[in-house]
Amino acid sequence: MNFELFVIPFNIGLYFIIFYVVYRSVVWFLDLSRQDKLRLQRGFFGRAFWQSIKEIFSESLLHRKIWKTNARLGYMHTSLAFGWFLLIIFGTIEADLFGTSHLNPPYKAIFFKYFHPEPARSGIEVAYAFLMDLILAYILSGLFLAVLKRFSSKSVGMKKTTKLLTLDKVALTSLWLVFPSRLLAESFTSGAYGSGSFLTGSLGNALASFLPAEQLAYPFWWLYSLSLGTFFILLPLTRYMHIPIELFLIFARNSGIKTGDQKGSYTDIQIYSCSSCGICIDACQLSFSAGINNIQTAYLLKGIRENIDVTDIVPNCLMCGRCEAKCPVGIEIMPIRMIQRRENIYLPSERKLLKRYFPDRKKSPAPKPPVPPSYSWIPEGRSEKAKVIYFAGCMSHLTPTIKKSMLSIFEAAGVDYTFVDEEGGVCCGRPLMLSGQTKKARELISYNSKLFYETGADMLVTSCPICYKVFKESYKLGIDIMHHTQYIKKLINDDALKLNFMHKTVSYHSPCDLGRGSGVYDEPKYVLSYVARLQETEFEDENSLCCGGSLANTKIDNPTRALIAKDAARELTKNRPDYLVTACPLCKKTFGAVTETDVVDISELVAQVIVVPQAKRLMSNSPIMRKKKVTVKNNC
Amino acid sequence: MNKEVIVIGAGAAGMESAGQLANEGFSVKIFEKDESPGGHLKGWYHLFPNRRDSVEVMDYLLDVIDRKEIELLTNTTVTKVSKKDGKFVVTTTQNKEYNADAIIVTTGFDLFRSERKEEYGYGIYDNVITSAELEKMFRNGNLRCTDGRIPQKVGFIHCVGSRDEKVGNFYCSKLCCVSAVKQAIEIREHVPESNVFCFYMDIRMGGSGYEELYRESQQKYGVNYIRGKVSEVAENYEGKLVLKVEDTLVGKPLKMEFDMLVLMVGMEMSESGKELAVNSGLLTGENRFFAPADHHFGSNKGNVDGIFYAGACTATMNLTETLAHARSAVDDVVDYFRRKK
Lengths: 636, 341
Fold this sequence. Notes:
Helices cover 55% and strands 5% of the residues of chain A. With 636 residues, chain A is mostly helical.
């Protein structure tokens, strides 16, 4: 027996999906920029290749990161992915070892039991049958969890799970049917021939005792093949496309390809690599504090994939980056959302079936038209020569204690600085960037850049993480850029600033744009531990919360923000610290409105404990220092 | 019928209702958390709109409660009221318990804490003060900047902590607009050469005689009104306050210097009232004030029969409304005992 009609659906499905994935990969490769193509080529012959193999094993099969976030969910994903992988590998070996011929076509391994139903002849074969049953049982246990998750997401420790489209449901059903139908087909065959191991053997015997096993086996082999075939054919239209595409993504990432700010192959690959696991939904504060459950990344990516209108989803995000930090696939979510913000126009297109299998090559549509008028009316700025530029930022002007504290720190450390936006400066441009108005933002960036350049300084210090991020990413200044927490640390290390220790407990809130956004986690904590007793919270570093005040969300209202802020403040003040400390004027303002605990910026604490203003201050050009002694009132 | 009624709070509402209760033949206890009665009225100089000296009203109220049926217990904060078998037990911070047949809650309001609007610089810059502090300056006859100068240019910022989503207060505090008008006039009277500017979102002159006062402030006293919400305040090297605002009628951003800025602080549910509400199961509304049983027919009643409200613990109110509300609460108390018979 070498062939049976029922293997045809499986074969069609398998060869279709192989052809399809190769085709899509080629299209994607061709659409990559020249540099990215080179990167990929270099990666293929270099370390990236082996790194990718390792990562594919640990992430695509073992799902290590999901295990870390949620062990039950991790077990579910691992058992399905790794179990299936083992079943294929060991099935192929089985067909090769114990079958009648070598180098069999794939269906021989998949339907091995049908073609070789005889009981095991040797000890090795008994052991092998046991192994195969074990693997099948492993997969079925994961499948059981998956079905459970669909009906009750809490059972696998998830608060929310993703909602499905019709085709997803068909594909999901066929996926669910694959393993139970295999179990039954193998069991009936085993029952008829008295073979099989602990699972298929016992179940087969039990079934054969009251059912015509031999006759019933055949339809189940058909069902098994049909469900596999259906699953493969529908794969490109569903989220299960992540299974083959993620391999491509891992390889591309390890080769050094980055999302950048243009739509292209790499964004497309990432969009298709999302498995809609729902971890981003659980990570999102809009979900767990404000009850908004339809705007998270899984839905955004699905919307883009399925060409659904996402214009309402795109701006409804705090851009805090919590989901990106937790995404087990490592999708660069923030840049993708930024690209989408720049182009936030929905172009409805035909959704014919063929178009969905073979979509047009993704090209960036024309960017949003800029909002008139331009900023040409802003008067020319003037700046003074100094070594260090201090840019408070507009939010720090709304929290003047921070501004005053920084000035007294500069004073005490004898820094030659100029307070460039003392009279109120021009916006750094990030709010415009975040709303997708890159062109407008560029006008502000060049205005400020000119101002900075004219000072001749080699260091720019800002009090605002929002400004800091855009200075770092979008300004080409060629000078050192520091957030004031980094600068204070430098002053401490340079012995320019002498500080007392205050016997107060503090907990630190890491601002999104400074922490996850710019990777500055350690300096603020260093400074804080230097001046006070720093308490740990449950939300440190990458897991830190968003205050809810984020400029990035243009959809939610103030009461909704307050919900997020209250939840976050409650978590951060659980251990009853004397101060809730942050390093961002916006976080300070947002938290200040919702908590009884005193909320202060790091600079305010530092300004309170300055020991002796050192007399080595050079007379700088700053008029505020020359004419008036700056004192900070102790209001915290 | 020697019924005992407890009044919680000896502000204007508490004193007036206590007097009326005594007129009706009840014996009354008033609990006051401060060391003397009078509440916020103690802090006022002249009252709007007729510029009567607040001492006159204060004397009237002190006179009202000065009778043998009324016992005033000062330095006593009520933390809880509980109802048992149609009677009430009032618990104070000293853990003493008092019995009563009915309660009138007159816990009033707290002023909005201006530190919460850090952008206005209260507590950071010396010459940013609140309207309540200005009133005290008038009373003490000491209208000066911290360095002793007499302020030549004074700005009033309306709606500080009122109609402000960001601090969680959606409501209008009603009396700050007319207070600003009154205080602006008084500044001009104290310092005739001064310039006074009011920065407002809307001017709300809803009471009798208010609009006339507003007109007078412009025609007779030359007070300037600029429509625009102040965005931020800074201090320059001369110690002057630099205020940024957009004049929304002209459509231009402005930057102005002032010697003194007055924040027209709004009203919020008092902290002691909040504590009382939580401990006693009294319902509060979205504005955090006590929730009246009915907007039209039950503004003195709440969710517990026998506990009545009077004055600014239910909504923002001026003195005229508060006194009327206090008297109507007593009507409800009388009605309550008649029903119970």
